[in-house]
Amino acid sequence: MKRLYVFNGALILIGLSLGVPATQSVIAGDHSIPVLLMALGGIGMAVSAGYESLRTDPEEFTISAAALFALVGAACLSLLGTLLSAVSSL
Questions:
Q1: Residues 28-46: pLDDT tens digits?
Q2: Which residue, 11, 23, 34, 21, is CA-closest to 88?
Q3: Quick one: which of 21, 35, 51, 64 is 20 to 30 A from 45 by CA?
Q4: What own/partner pairs with CB < 8 Å and gap ≥ 24 does 21-30 have?
């Protein structure tokens, strides 16, 4: 598997784990500055990572294995935190 797609997939996952809950809060009526910025930043991160994945040549992309492993770990923790937050609010 190409490292570019793993890298951008992890960024998309982090962006969506931040942006989707914040967007739900905005829809529910919480219009505070931090929530709006988190919604815009998270969705923007996911969209820009998807765009970069389409525009970048996978053969020219370089990242160390340790940095990629750390980013995938951060994406897993971000998703876990979002899921635990959603479950605890039920």
A1: 998 899 999 999 999 999 9
A2: 21
A3: 64
A4: 21/82, 21/85, 21/86
**pLDDT higher at 89 or 27:** 27
Secondary structure in 3-state letters for the chain: CCHHHHHHHHHHHHHHHHHHHHHHHHHHCCCCHHHHHHHHHHHHHHHHHHHHHHHCCCCCCCCCHHHHHHHHHHHHHHHHHHHHHHHHCC
Q: Which of 40, 35, 47, 38 is nearest to 11 (CA)?
A: 47
Residues in contact with 83: Cβ distance below 8 Å, sequence separation at least 6, in sequence order: none
Nearest residue to 40 (alpha-carbon basis) of 53, 50, 31: 31
